[in-house]
Design brief:
464 residues; alpha/beta; FAD/NAD(P)-binding domain; Polyamine Oxidase, Chain A, domain 2; 3 domains; 7-stranded mixed beta sheet; 5-stranded parallel beta sheet; 20 strands; globular; binds flavin-adenine dinucleotide
């Protein structure tokens, strides 16, 4: 019988936590390395009033089946609540309701004919099954052809810029197709109305429960450990050393028989310089680019609007206003929770401004948008910076995406940029974590380091 294998997972976000749970279910010893002080990654949360809230706004869709299954497995399905969102769009300094097809038909900013074409294009895209047909076209080309150039310039281009900043015009049509499909399909079975889900108590509860189960089964989660370098210290038995730097600048090494990196491809390239990568793989890893995100969460004395989600098509310092309490109600937050978010290139000078400067910039923008708002309405605030928040999905992405099974046997890359054709999201982080665990097991079975009968039973997925 082969020796018990140890896997080092870099990153204790949702992907890493799910990969750890799945590997444990197949009998692996797992050690998770996390650079921040607590697990959760982008779904990390903090206490506010008598509740907890994510640093970054989060909701789920009705078709996020894997995430729903995860919540069920963790005993949290009772806490998953569904809400009807109300959306708006700011264009030409005016707040327009934008929740329904009727709102689109009434949207005065684009000519009527192009409103009709836009509605039909969204419907057509949502029904399209073979996304590969869109792979070599940009979203801009597809939208101009199907919706018209005014609709593109006044509606879609600002939305693409909101997500991809200066790369908006290079984004693949697959990305926008996916948005139409996902949003259009997040509907209640009973009423057909659009519904979004939120976890009563925050998605932090899901993180807590995963952590509790992982540690209860004897695995370690080493927080405050930043992985700097992966090297192979032995071929037989296969062993890797992951060098980590701690907050006090001390270094430690974590040894394992396989490594799963759930980080950006950029970070992955930096920590694997000891390996002589084939040019093609290295090119794929290095070619990927990401947008950063600045997310300001405010607790306010009063709400700003009746809407949950307000997209900004005008020039303002942020691109979306998410009034969380307009979706889930006031609860015990002790105020209205509002997120202001902006995706940007991290070479943008705004990225390097201090938290206070960014706060003031966003607050000035908010005062322009909602004249009744005053800075005195702010009870408290926090700014979250996410360096690699959104991979830029360009044309022909399926041919450029680095494989999870890297050429370095035993080293897996399972970062957000490996989610495709869907856009990154919690549901797909769960899928990615499961895929990474299965990939480790499959490889170990092939090389005789794991029993052929073993399988990753977590979330009762089929097959190894
Ligand atoms: C603005 C924004 C809004 C979003 N809204 C939604 C939403 O509404 N619904 C939804 O489903 N999804 C949403 N998402 C996406 C969702 O949060 C992510 O898809 C998911 O959390 C990704 O999980 P992950 O584990 O892959 O990555 P991460 O959460 O980024 O986890 C990676 C972890 O690795 C750690 N790490 C990085 N480098 C190192 C290192 N060198 N050593 C050790 N540890 C390291 C990081 O600290 C982090 O904890 C949103 C994302 C953003 C940015």
């Amino acid at each position: 019988m082969p020796d018990r294998q140890r896997v080092c997972i870099i990153g204790a976000g949702l992907t890493g936590l799910v990969a750890a749970s799945a590997l444990q279910s197949a009998g692996y010893d797992v050690v998770l390395i996390e650079s921040t002080r607590s697990p959760g990654g982008m779904i990390a949360s903090f206490p506010v009033g008598s509740e907890r809230i994510e640093y970054i706004y989060h909701h789920i869709f009705t078709h996020d089946k894997l995430l729903v299954r995860l919540l069920d497995t963790l005993g949290l399905s009772d806490r998953l609540k569904w809400f009807k969102p109300s959306d708006a769009l700011v264009a030409d300094g005016t707040l327009h309701p934008f929740s329904s097809p009727l709102d689109l038909l009434r949207f005065p900013v684009i000519p009527f004919g192009q409103r009709l074409r836009t509605g039909l294009a969204v419907l057509r895209a949502a029904r399209l099954k073979d996304w590969k047909k869109l792979e070599d076209e940009t979203a801009a080309q597809w939208l101009i052809r199907n919706c018209g150039s005014d609709a593109y310039r006044r509606l879609w281009q600002p939305l693409l810029r909101a997500k991809f900043d200066n790369d908006a015009d290079t984004v693949s049509a697959v990305w926008i197709w996916n948005k139409f499909k996902l949003r259009g399909h997040s509907r209640s079975h009973e009423t057909g109305a659009e519904m979004l889900g939120y976890l009563d108590g925050s998605f932090g509860l899901m993180v807590d429960e995963l952590v509790r189960r992982i540690t209860a089964r004897g695995s370690q989660i080493l927080t405050g450990h930043t992985a700097m370098n992966i090297s192979q210290v032995s071929d037989t038995p296969r062993r890797f050393a992951v060098s980590c730097i701690l907050e006090n600048c001390a270094t430690v090494q974590v040894e394992a028989n396989a490594v799963v990196a759930t980080v950006s491809s950029r970070q992955f390239a930096g920590m694997t310089t000891s390996y002589d990568w084939p040019d093609t793989y290295l090119r794929q890893v290095n070619r990927l680019s990401y947008k950063g995100d600045l997310c300001l969460v405010l607790r306010l004395r009063r709400s700003l609007s009746p809407y949950y989600w307000t997209t900004i098509c005008d020039s303002l310092p942020f691109v979306v206003v998410v009034e969380h309490t307009n979706l889930v109600g006031p609860r015990g937050y002790g105020g209205h929770i509002v997120y202001l978010s902006r995706y940007l290139d991290i070479s943008d000078p705004v990225w390097t401004q201090s938290d206070g400067e960014i706060y003031r910039l966003f607050i000035q923008g908010l005062s322009r948008l909602y004249p009744h708002f005053s800075a005195a309405d702010v009870i408290d605030w926090r700014l979250q910076r996410t360096r690699c928040a959104q991979p830029v999905i360009g044309r022909g992405y399926s041919r450029q995406m680095p494989a999870m099974d890297t050429p370095w046997s035993g080293v897996k890359l399972a970062g957000m940029a490996q989610i495709y054709p869907e856009d990154r999201g919690m549901n797909y982080a769960v899928r990615l974590g499961l895929d990474a665990a299965r990939s480790v097991l499959r490889e170990d079975q092939l090389r005789g380091a794991a029993d052929p009968g073993l399988r990753c039973g977590f979330l009762q997925e089929e097959g190894p």
